[in-house]
Amino acid sequence: MNKYILITGCEGFIGKNVKNFFLSQNYKVIGIDKKSCLKKRKNFTFYKIDLKNVLDLKKKLSKFNIESIVHLAAMPGIIDCNKNISKAFNDNILSTINIFNLSENLNIKKIFYFSSLSTYNFIKNPHIYALTKKFSQDIAVTQNKYLKRNSCCINLSNVYGEFSENKNSFIHMMIKAEVFKKVLNVYNKGFQKRDFIYVGDIPKTLNFLMKKKTIPYKFNLCTSKLINLLNVIKIYKKMIKSNIKIRFLSKQKNYSETKKMKSVNKSKGIKLTNLEIGLIKTRNFYIKNFKK
Questions:
Q1: Can you spell out the DSSP letters for 74-127?
Q2: Residue range 120-148: mean pLDDT, rounded
Q3: In the predicted model, is pLDDT for residue 265 greater than 60?
Q4: What would the pLDDT profile of 64-96 be if each residue is shown by its tens digit?
Q5: What is the rounded end-to-end Cα distance, in angstroms, of the chain?
Q6: Alpha helices in the chain (DSSP H)
């Protein structure tokens, strides 16, 4: 019987990259999203389902032999979650609980769910997005212990890369400012620090972990190298050999300072993409798909 990978949020920024990678590796993939997927592909089955609809989930997925779940569906963003607390709790907590229950009902061996490094800084800088992610982590840890689940929380730092046209995070806005001749807003005089991770490193890490017999309950996917935004701009301008219009603004509201975390151990077989190479790939995506 064929084995499948289930990817929730498969039409989002990270989800598209994960889906494309596993299909390129000849995996059989089931994708779930609230948004439509118009493109039909070999080895890919898509369902437009809200993860809060438990009965529909079980009905559609019970016929598949699903080996692993990659749970990406969530409401992202500090500002959006603070503005709509009920939706944040439903999308980020209730949906995660439903995925865990689904794994038990369908006897799915491994669950990979995603969180944020902002959970480590929650006491100093609390916000709804981090709270929902932290709560989901606590649920997973409890179920791992008492229900013997095999789940792994992958904590992400600041992700950038292809299929990010709807993202408003710094690197994406910087590239859009250059490609579309717009002004780049830079807060706190550019001294904010980030740990940037290229989106293509996420599916490679998942592929590595899926092949392991036992998976860690937590995995920080980051470089452990904080870089301020001024230096990112400097690297990018040198790369494109051009200038960018910049507007320096005061400190950003709802800003969460990135905390330096232990990086992925290269000896584990995971090599992270260099920032310059990731910037080139991301810029090429925008030029190829959006620049007239």
A1: ----HHHHHH-HHHHHIIIIIHHHHHHHHHHHTT--EEEEEEEGGGGGTTTS--
A2: 80
A3: no
A4: 999 999 999 998 878 888 899 999 999 899 999
A5: 47
A6: 13-24, 54-61, 78-83, 85-89, 95-105, 128-146, 170-179, 201-210, 229-240, 275-289
Single out the residue of 11, 109, 120, 8 nearest to residue 53, CA to CA: 8
Residue 269: burial class (beta carbons within 10 Å; 0-12, 13-18, 19+):
exposed
Q: Residues near 192 by Cβ (< 8 Å), separated by ≥ 6?
A: 228, 229, 252, 255, 257
Q: What is the pTM of this model?
A: 0.92
Do residues 153 and 216 make contact, with C-beta atoms less than 8 angstroms apart? no
Task: Give me the CATH number covering residue 148.
Answer: 3.40.50.720
Place of tokens 């699903």: 66
Distance of alpha carbon 4 from alpha carbon 69, whole angstroms: 9
Find tokens 């190298």 and name the residue.
Answer: 225
Domain count, the chain: 1
Distance CA 48, CA 41 (A): 16
**DSSP designation for 269:** T
Domain interval for residue 24: 3-289
* Position 187, amino acid: Y
Q: What is the pLDDT of residues 26-37, one digit of tens each?
A: 999 999 999 888
